[in-house]
Amino acid sequence: MGCLLGMLLCLFGHAQQLPITNEAARLCQQLQLDAAFEKSTESLNDKTESADAYAWYVNGFVLKEIYKNREYGLRNSSLRTAAMKSFATSLEKKNAQQHLAMTRLAMKYLASTYYNDALQAAQSIAEGGEQEANALFVEFEKWMPLAEPGISMTGYKKEFTKSIGQRYFSLWQRDTDNSENRDKAIAQYEKILKLDSSDVDAYYNLSVIHYNQAVFMYRKINHETDLFDMMTIQEAAAKLIREKALPLMDKAYALAPEKGEVVHGKIILHRALDHEKDVEYFKNEITRLIREGKIKAEQQK
Amino acid sequence: MVLAIRKYAFRLYCLTALLLSASCIVGQTIPADNTVAIIRANYLYQFANNSDWPSENKKGPFVVGIIGNTDVFDIMVAKYASKPIGSQLLTVIGANEVATAPHVHVLFVDRSKKAELAKYTRDLRGVSTLIVTNWEGALAQGAHVNFLSIDGSIRFEMNKTAMLESSITPGVKILQWAIQ
């Protein structure tokens, strides 16, 4: 309840000027959140108090506390939205500077919850439904720069996009005959590469998708497969590995030649193309990396 | 002073909220399937199914021996064991059993056991065993069929004369797809 202690201390600083707002802060400190909200709403209807940034800050704070108590994890929480709007209004007031740091911190907290919710929504995307995750991320993108001006959003965007890509990849693994989710996963990783053309994970994951597509083709070969059909499947699968998966893994390797997963990926792909010498070379690389302590022994498979 | 205290309190919340974000991304796993072994195993089955052995070898199990390649062995067992080859059921055996088996119809010698090919060709002279290998120059060393890798695809070359000398007749499909 350190925040409430802060609220109380703040109350003394504004007692003369903003009695309704300070009463709201006091009620909030006593965890009488409904009463605090009522009082805070009253303060916003007061011409003098609503002109002060602090009144909006307290209103946002009370709403944030109610959100934390009652709607935390609720992705479409209207309390969170209302809290953010109050904080944003606080920033627009003439004396915003007096409460700037605290307002931004409160906004950063709420912006973070949007981000977390966006990631969680991304992990629960059902077939064809990433709208909720995207909408939450848009909220995060809208509020975070206000909470932390000058912040780079690229890293967050990449992580969020990877999360969606991972989800579509998982959906595809469940139904490998349905190429829609595979294509959506590919689209996500390609989007990451547009944001950052040196993202090793994106190259690696794209390579794995193409390789897996080939593996699923190989796995269908059995005693009922005609010789001609087998050779047709093999040609198509080998082409996929040779022309798509391997060049992408090569890019990942060029960026991260000592990353265990990437070197292991090179072994698997070259083995699939029967490149015996390359397989030996990268196996020796794994051995060297383990010897030099750069990767762990369990990565050698 | 007042602001500093509140700031501290909020900062704690911020950190708590942000902690969630980093752990959500999971890397994709790359399947360990040996796809070349899948193809070689299927070829061995195709050779068995599309060739003709002398009538005395059409009794009992149809035996495929695998030397020096556990992946091909495992896939043969998983996908093709007990499947019918004509009126026979396909059986897969390893190196130890090959030495004692009354008859082996198809014998795959992997390049990891290249040095052993001479022994097998000597022991199996005049016997209707189709010897299959996977390295350059193996036909000249006595193999009947040899796998080649072309742009990542597994193809095969064959010594038809040597097959006929072993009284094994390759079917049309085998002849059609062999590299000339």
Radius of gyration of chain B equals 27 Å
Tally of structural domains of chain B: 1
Q: What distance separates the N and C termini of chain A?
A: 51 Å
Question: Number of helical segments of chain A?
Answer: 14
Concise synopsis of the structure shown:
The complex is a heterodimer of chains A (301) and B (180). Chain A is mainly alpha-helical.
Word description of this protein:
The mean pLDDT of chain A is 92. Chain A has helices at residues 2-14, 19-29, 33-44, 47-50, 53-71, 78-92, 100-123, 131-147, 154-174, 179-195, 200-219, 227-255, 260-272, 276-291. Chain A has two domains: 1-151, Serine Threonine Protein Phosphatase 5, Tetratricopeptide repeat (Alpha Horseshoe), CATH 1.25.40; 198-301. Chain A has 301 residues and is mainly alpha-helical. By secondary structure, chain B is α/β, with parallel strands linked by helices. Chain B has one domain (35-177): Rossmann fold (3-Layer(aba) Sandwich). Chain B contains seven helices and nine strands; from the N terminus they run ααββαββαβαβββαβα. Chain B has helices at 2-19, 35-49, 70-80, 95-98, 117-123, 160-165, 172-177, and strands at residues 51-52, 62-67, 84-85, 88-93, 106-109, 130-133, 145-150, 153-158, 169-170. In chain B, the strands form two sheets. In chain B, strands 3-4-2-5-6-7-8 form a seven-stranded mixed sheet. Chain B is globular. The model of chain B is unreliable at 1-26 (pLDDT under 50). Classes of the chains: A mainly alpha (301), B alpha/beta (180). The interface between A and B is large, with 67 and 49 residues.
